[in-house]
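no rush on this but wanted to send it before i forget. theres a chain ive been looking at and ive put its sequence and its fold in token form underneath. please have a look and point out which stretches look like helix strand or loop to you. thanks a lot i owe you, the record is right below:
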Amino acid sequence: MLAKEVSPSMGPEYVMLVRNPYKRLESFFKEKLRQKVKMVFDDDPYILKRHQEVFYSYLKIKSSDPLEVKAAALLKLTFKEFIMNVRDVYKIEDHISPQTLNFSRSLMGVNRVMRMNKYVHLENADEMKWLADYFKLDLSIRINTTHEIDDAIEWDDESISVVKEIFRKDFDTFSYSVEPDA
């Protein structure tokens, strides 16, 4: 969420960057459960974080297991298994929880009403250009680039049903199609 002071009397204008729930989950899987996990085997190894640890229970991984054992088990997790487990972990991992839920959490402890002035959809080039111009951002710098990761992502009916159930409010609030690739 970004904020810009419009005027002292009007207060800040809030803009929330949102992403299609299907694309968000695909990106998480590719980056956190493929790209980052493979880095465990690099010369300068990546240390597994909460993003991966939330799946330890399902994979029967112990926190005392060697890093390589944890990484190997995570790399065996299929996309379908990941989606089936999202319903068990989305409430504790912000990267895969509904954006409407994350926004509600960000308001906890805030003693004023925050009115969202605008939603900017990550997939919409015109909205992203507006965002860059309005906040003077350089969007050419990409931090997480998962579009280059060639990992087969297939949505079956059961997986789609899980996503529709968990992300129903995101689909409605942000006007996304409830079908993947629509």
Summary: Residues 2-167 form one domain. The mean pLDDT is 85.
